[in-house]
Prior knowledge:
Blueprint: H1 7-13, H2 16-24, E1 28-38, H3 41-50, E2 54-55, E3 60-62, E4 67-73, E5 85-91, H4 103-113, H5 121-130, H6 132-140, E6 144-151, H7 154-163, E7 176-177, E8 183-187, E9 192-196, E10 201-205, E11 208-214, H8 228-235
Amino acid sequence: MNKFININKYISRTPTFNKIVKAIRPHIKGVDHIALRTFNPMNIYQICKKHGYHKQPNIYHFPLYNSTATYYLNPKENKIDSVPRIFVSSYNEPLYDHNYSHQLDFEIIDFYRKSDKKFTYNTYKDIYDKNQYLAWTLCFRDEINHIALEVDNINIVNKKVKEMGMKLNADNGEIKVSQDGLLMQSSTKSDEILYQFSDDKYNIPYGFVEFVERGYDENNVKREGFEENNALYIFNSTKK
């Protein structure tokens, strides 16, 4: 896994991850998924396909951030050290972003998403104020946004995390629950890193940790997949 997705980079820049793993280890069932944000989903698709991941038919839509997402399933999910799911969200064409209305804005976004050139902190703030998802993706495209741990009791885990002095994402409640009640998710607020802009370095949100509890239906089948409403609020973990 780490040969094509840099897990070590995420862990080194998200110090809360190891602290949380140590504190809640008895409640961790494994890694539920890792999530990336990108401008080039086809490139991620080719990499996942090469490593044996199967693209799922589910398409999740997030018009608030002008993004869509899908996920890839590893048929060898019971293998030690494997990551069962890779959740990939991508920013759509700027023209479809309702957060912007001026041609100059579209051109600026289009320029920076197609280049590796640094922009100023003020440009970052302007973009962040309108679409924080886009601002994150411009800075860290194709990197891990978060790692999600599957846990046996999300209420206990949340309690332990808060006892450690860490903040949970409370948008739409600390626990986001799917309509069928079988998928429960929560997350920390992002750790910040010192990021080099074209004019100076500033602290901005980077990675966070998610917790997932998956229930079983009346046929004892484990809940698979994701849910748009849950994922939308989890996205907000990268908001200050």
